[in-house]
Amino acid sequence: MNEQVAAPRIGGWLLLPLAWLIMTLLTTV
After folding, report:
1. Could you please report the per-residue DSSP string of the chain?
2. What domain of life does the native source organism fall in (predicted)?
């Protein structure tokens, strides 16, 4: 696996939980 290909995939999977966490924090606060 090339790092250039793996990096965007890992970033995408990390972005989903982060976006969900931010939305939950905004709704609670």
Report:
1. --HHHHHHHHHHHHHHHHHHHHHHHHHH-
2. Bacteria
> Phi and psi dihedrals of 2, rounded to 5?
-85, 140
pLDDT at position 2 is 62
CB-CB neighbours of 15 under 10 Å: 10
pTM above 0.70, yes or no: no
Q: How far apart are CA 17 and CA 2, in angstroms?
A: 24
Any idea how long the chain is?
Answer: 29
